[in-house]
Structure formats: structure tokens, C-alpha cells
Design goal:
309 residues; alpha/beta; Rossmann fold; Hypothetical Protein Yjia, Chain: A,domain 2; 2 domains; 10 helices; 28% helix; CobW-like_C; GTP-binding protein; chaperone; Zinc-reg_GTPase_activator; hydrolase
Length: 309
């Protein structure tokens, strides 16, 4: 029996991983395999989501739509050979991926026969200005969507919320728009109620040239960080960042990881689990426009955060 695919797209920091985590945590007995594609050499998103399902497959070092096309197809083939076989597959794209290119790959006749694409979900950060939807990449992500989930709606007032819904509706009239409070999107919108129903193949336009717009700079340390100094360092780097995320141990709370996220100019810290063996005690991925940050600037800024050896 074919295994339907849900493709989750959205810009950097929109809230995709929160949506996927919620879906996996409320699987209602279904076997869901998740393919998590992160942008950068350290796949932070896969680590944040791995505890929710034993079906997570980690892809890194680029986005699915370009350098990882072959890996994506091989990964799907591997998932489909599992026993027991998954009933549903979720693919979370990198925040810099154009889903149109991934959709084109999933229309491959061999893949379609075994793992047909059923739904494209685009997660949009509702706290951003509506004008941000004019970004060419974000518009491409919206144009591919069957369902648009407005994330972080609890952080905006009613007028801004309504303005974002109107802006999304203007760009993608055919999509279903829902509020995703704490990542919750109704499963009935994402997967078919009848798993025997065959999805309809999608029209795909000509392949667009891939532009290198963003780059990642990863920073690791074998030593824990001092939290006050880290907060100061992030404050200095934040104006140049499109996104940042990481896992680190602090001097103040040894033996326990903290989860760091920077999106939309807002930084958050949350408690994580115990550090994994044979991994650096501090790992952060910085994502910026090409040329906005240098390796030297990252290293010199972050070196002041670590405990002296």
C-alpha cells in the first residue's frame, strides 16, 4: 500500500519543528516516519525532534531541493523497506528550501507509486510584518501550500493577526489557513482519512535556478558556556543573523543541556536533556545572508563565552 507524504515548508524560524513535534507526539497510534532536513553541518532540528519518534532520519549539509536530492530519494526508499512499514511520512524542509523543487522530485514515477505526496503545509511566523511575505522565497513556499499554518499567533494582537491572514489569503487563495497555537494543526487537514485514497499528481513548473542566498557558520566548544556572556554575545551578533539555534551546557547548570533559538529577532532558552556522549558540550548554528558574518567574527565573539580551560 502506498505511504502518503506530508511536506512541511516555511521560512527560517517560522516554527516548522514545533509543528512536526506536535504531530509526532499526537500520532494516535499511527506509525509516522519523519525526515528532518536542516541547513548546516550540525543538524540541531533532528536532535530536537528525535525524542518524539523512532522514525527520524537526519539529513544535513544543505537543503533537500539541491545538494540532497539523491539522499532524499534513497532515504524514502530506506523508510519504505522498514518492517513494520510506516503509515505516514513527514518531510520537514530546510528554511531556505523552495518546496516547488522538492515537489518536482517527489513526482518521480517510482517515488509516486510508493510514497505519493499528499499535502504541502507551509508554516508562517505570524509575528512578522505582513510586508515580509513579499520575500521571493517565502512567496514560493506559500504558493506550493495546500494548508498554511500561522504560528505564534498568541504573540500578536487581533488586528495584526487579521492582517496576516488577509495577506496570506491574497497570495494563496486556494489554501486552508489555520492558527497553529503551540504547533497544533488538525491532523485531518494534513493526512487523508482514507489511506487507500490515491492523491492527485501535481503540476510542476520549470526548474528555477538555485541562488546561494544564505550561509551557515557552526560554532562548537568542548567547554560549557557562561550564560551572561553568551547572552551578550548573541546580542552583538543578532542584527546580522537570519536565524540561530543550538544546544549547550552552561557553567551555571553543568550536566544539563539548554536549547537556544533565535528567530524573528527573539531569542529563547529552554531546558534540554542530558548531553549525549561523544558530542561537543556547546553547539550553535548561525544562519545569515551571504557575507554578513565572517568565521573570525563568530569565533572571536563566542570565545569569550566559554569557561576558561
Amino acid at each position: 500500500m502506498p505511504v502518503p507524504v506530508l511536506l512541511v515548508a516555511g521560512f527560517l524560524g517560522a516554527g516548522k519543528t514545533t509543528v512536526v513535534n506536535h504531530l509526532l507526539a499526537h500520532a494516535q497510534g499511527k506509525r509516522i516516519a519523519a525526515v528532518i532536513n536542516d541547513f548546516g553541518a550540525i543538524n540541531i532540528d533532528a536532535e530536537l525532534i528525535a525524542g518524539a519518534s523512532d522514525g527520524v532520519v537526519s539529513l544535513s549539509n544543505g537543503c533537500i531541493c539541491c545538494t540532497l536530492e539523491g539522499d532524499l530519494l534513497r532515504t524514502l526508499a530506506t523508510l519504505l523497506r522498514r518492517d513494520p512499514r510506516p503509515e505516514l511520512i513527514v518531510i520537514e524542509t530546510s528554511g531556505v528550501a523552495d518546496p516547488a523543487d522538492i515537489v518536482r522530485n517527489l513526482m518521480d514515477p517510482v517515488i509516486w507509486q510508493e510514497a505519493p505526496l499528499d499535502t504541502v503545509l507551509c508554516v508562517v511566523d505570524a509575528t512578522q510584518p505582513a510586508e515580509k511575505l513579499n520575500d521571493a522565497l517565502l512567496r514560493s513556499q506559500l504558493r506550493a501550500a495546500d494548508v498554511v499554518a500561522l504560528a505564534k499567533v498568541d504573540l500578536v494582537d487581533a488586528a495584526h493577526h487579521a492582517g496576516m491572514r488577509d495577506a496570506v489569503r491574497a497570495l494563496r487563495p486556494a489554501a486552508v489557513i489555520v492558527d497553529a497555537v503551540h504547533g497544533e494543526v488538525p491532523a485531518t487537514l494534513l493526512f487523508p482519512a482514507d489511506l487507500d485514497r490515491a492523491p492527485t499528481p501535481r503540476e510542476t513548473g520549470p526548474r528555477q535556478p538555485v541562488l546561494d542566498r544564505f550561509e551557515t557558520l557552526s560554532w562548537t566548544s568542548e567547554r560549557p558556556v557562561r550564560l551572561p556572556q553568551l547572552q551578550q554575545a548573541i546580542g552583538r551578533l543578532a542584527p546580522k543573523l537570519a536565524r540561530a539555534k543550538g544546544l549547550f551546557e552552561t557553567v551555571e547548570q553543568p550536566g544539563r543541556l539548554m536549547v537556544f533559538q533565535l528567530a524573528g529577532g527573539r531569542a529563547t532558552l529552554a531546558p534540554g536533556g542530558a548531553p549525549a556522549p561523544d558530542t561537543p558540550r556547546s553547539r550553535i548554528v548561525f544562519i545569515a545572508e551571504m557575507g554578513a558574518l565572517s568565521r573570525g567574527e563568530i569565533d572571536s565573539t563566542m570565545e569569550g563565552c566559554v569557561e576558561a580551560g
